[in-house]
Amino acid sequence: MMGAAPLINIGTSAMRFFFALHSSVLRSSVTPALDNLDKINPADEIMIILGAHSSNENAKEEGRQTFHVVKLLKHPYYDINTLKNDILLMELNNTANFGEFVQNISLPETFEDLEEGTVCETAGWGWTGRKFANCLMEVNVTILNRKLCQRHLKNAVPVTMNMMCTNVGPEGQDTCFGDSGGPLICNGIFRGILSFGTHPCGMRNGAAVYTRLTEEYINWIKNKIERQR
């Protein structure tokens, strides 16, 4: 998280379900391709810690809750080459307890495209320019239009209507390696999930790209959760 400030904590859990990205799960599991996602044993390889401030998984912090992932619910149309539909759900082995240190976040109920220049916030433990953050960091970022975002990406992948972008701030405020899967929160509403960005991070004319929580994705999430009950 480039140019960010410490954040007390932030929760993006939905009781027993947790948002993630195909790409971030693949990286954290050291898995080279989406085809291998089916070969991951979630209970053995993926652990979720809620209510954490420190990036040290062994840190003693009041309010920490630790879970194993029992099931990965991947989007059927994820494309590893274009990063389209870069969203999945992880079912936890137990129910998260909401309180002072773990809170849920509102999913969007309306799905209008956010105006360019809208100031949002995101958070993560990613690369800060010299090292990975040792505590959860927050940064304000500004919505960027897709046409300019596509130009910043140099056509590496197509920016679709199911994606949204933020630009790099005047002092290098940006997301970076290790922040993938972090929330984009705009006016208190969970609007997107960080997918990827330009490299190197924090440079002028850079951009970060998020999976936009569209009505289609929200319906997919609700249907998936309902089927697991």
What fraction strand?
25-35%
How many distinct beta strands?
A: 12
Q: Would you identify the regions where 5 or more consecutive residues have pLDDT less than 50? A: 7-14, 23-36
- The outline comes out as globular
Order of helices and strands: EEEHHEEEEEHEEEEH
Tell me the distance between the termini.
36 Å
Major sheet, described briefly?
Answer: 6 strands, antiparallel, barrel
With strands numbered from the N-terminus, the spatial order across the biggest sheet is 7-8-9-12-11-10
**Helix- and strand-based class?**
alpha+beta
- Estimate the mean pLDDT confidence: 83
Helical residue percent? 10-25%
The number of helices is: 4
Question: What is Rg?
Answer: 17 Å
What does this structure look like?
37% of the residues are buried. With 229 residues, this protein is α+β, with helices and mostly antiparallel strands. It is built from 4 helices and 12 strands. The strands form 2 sheets. A 6-stranded antiparallel beta barrel has the order 7-8-9-12-11-10. Strands 2-3-6-5-4 form a 5-stranded antiparallel sheet. Mean pLDDT is 83; it is low at 7-14 and 23-36. The radius of gyration is 17 Å and the shape is globular.
